[in-house]
Amino acid sequence: MSTSTTSAPPPGTQDTPPKTRHGPGRPVTARRGWRRALRRDWQLYSLAVLPLLFFLVFRYLPMIGNVIAFRRFEPGGSILGEQWVGLRYVRMFLTDPTFWQVFCNTLWLGGLTLVFCFPIPIVLALLLNEVRRRSLKRFVQSVSYLPHFLSVVIVAGITMQMLATDGPVNHVLDWFGHDPVRFIQEPGWFRTIYVGSEIWQTAGWGTILYLAALTTIDEDLYEAARIDGASRWRQIWHVTLPGIRPTMITLLILNIGTFLAVGFEKVLLLYNPLTYPTADVVSTYLYRAGVESNSFSYAAAIGLFEAIIGLVLVTGANQLSRRTVGTSLW
Asked: I need a labelling partner for 129 at 20 to 30 A (CA). Which of 51, 78, 82, 327 fits?
């Protein structure tokens, strides 16, 4: 019997794997993989062209205009300002008592909106999740969603008509022997009116994300909790809420990032000079200072200050969330 032997090739003649050359930034193979993916799925990548153009034109290019916060801008002159003035406009609003009044009003409205408008969609989603009759569940969802599709102008108009001196609310108060209340003209009522209308308009729509998150929770967890003797409240506390916690944290961080961006349109439509002490916020103050008074550089300085505070808030909330609960946006 003959035994066949395989002789090893001489040294230096073995096939060696091709070497990957590294460019200045990343490997050549990575660039080739990106080009191959772009060539293969160019239809999908083309869908991102319009959104990217939108953000480029309406979000990033306007950032160049922030330079007029440090330059004197005159209508009809250069779009980037006529003369460098440094921090003059920053010092102006830091020493302006009116600015600090509207800044405090913004903090009040933003804080009340966050405290009341953030948890209500969670509670509504949990209640709807417990409803077993599909017809009732769909009816409640439809009724709660409808206000979201109304424009801010219509919502403000309904609010003003309901709370007018001769409106339905004052008619009800008259039946109980109470004198008519001028809700729209009294500064003390504005925050309640704003937050109440915001809850009515946004609570139902906010439940969509939480209801979608509830569908991802494993039913076996509820079964295990029931076997252990957990009640419905215990199941909600130990199973449901931890299951939707990532969604809650993400939306909370986003809401904190827009903490100072209180609804400009609704405030502008609901407030009047009588309610300025509690209703005037940074965005409406910017509108009057920049558009009505033509102080564009001053308004740009305040807007830049507001944007920096929003960036600090969302970054801080993201870091705090990552260290405490392990969930963050980035």
From this structure: 327
Decide if pLDDT at 2 tops 70: no
Provide, rounded to the nearest whole percent, the portion of the chain with pLDDT above 90.
21
Name the token pair of 125: 């989603």
Total Cβ atoms within 10 A of residue 87: 11
**Nearest-angstrom CA–CA distance, 199 and 201:** 5
Task: Judge whether residue 229 has pLDDT over 50.
Answer: yes
Regarding predicted confidence, which is higher, 22 or 45?
45
Is 244 within 8 Å of 213 (Cβ atoms)? Answer: yes
Q: Is the pLDDT of residue 6 over 50?
A: no
The dihedral over CA atoms of 99, 102, 106, 109, expressed in degrees to the nearest 10, equals: 170
Q: Six-digit token pair at 327?
A: 């969930």
pLDDT of residue 172: 92
For residue 110, give Cα distances in angstroms to 92, 102, 204: 24, 12, 19
